[in-house]
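Mods, move this if it's the wrong board.
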Amino acid sequence: MIKTVTVRVPATTANLGPGFDCVGAALSLHNQFQFSLLESATPATVNIEVSGAEADRVKTDESNLAYQAFVKLYEHLNQPVPPVQITIQLEVPLARGLGSSATAIVGGLIGANLLAQSPLDRDAVMQLAIAIEGHPDNVVPALIGGCRLSAFSTAGDWMISDIPWHEDLVPVVAIPNFELSTAEARRVLPTQYSRADAIFNVAHLGLLVRGLETGRADWLQTALHDRIHQPYRQSLIVGYEAVHSAAMAAGAYGLVISGAGPTLLALANSAQANGVETAITEAWRSHGIAVDVRSLQIDTYGASIHLQD
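Not the wrong board. Structure tokens:
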């Protein structure tokens, strides 16, 4: 019988310009969640320990998101929730647009499923993760890795397609030292869009898929533009215009808001990535903003597990 499960879940970047709420990619930055059954404790007992950056901000009671996902799976199975020790190691910054909540949801669901002797397959876990998160763009790549396009089918479930990512295309993430809540980022969006804006995004999303696959510069430079969310959210991010201009001048194909922000994502080839990092850092610092800029890779594996008896 499995008594301890360790789940390592990648950060994600969502939207990628015109792919609002339907495109996301897993990145080479991870959170780790360990779940150990407590044999002598009463049912539904939970002990939570957190380490890593911003660990003091993570809740360690029953409201912890990883534990809520853990409980949700047992409720889905109509089984009692076992007492559990949860140990969390953080690498993914909180509330920065890099899918930290998705790592908790995916980690909690996988941990519970394995401790329950794996009654659900990966697709069922994924559907449950989407239901908890409310949309697929972060939890899907966090679970299965790669860059993914998600669409809701007429049959009432989610269809997931991979988007090939060219080997020379580098995701450069710029993580500023301020937060932007998803609720605030949603609040500034309009409730209706014009036909012209809808057509614009459909066309650019199609071009984005081809640009990511081929790495073709001119396609990406056009495809990363958007009219659904970025024009409305840019005003919430201090120094956005300066950072965008600096990244483009340094050779980036484009700069987009990662998830709900405030992290920004630049796409560049391997030869230009270091210069883009430097340009973004200097531009944000000129506005008095400290920033962590990193060239990452696409995580093609997704959530990984380690089991102990």
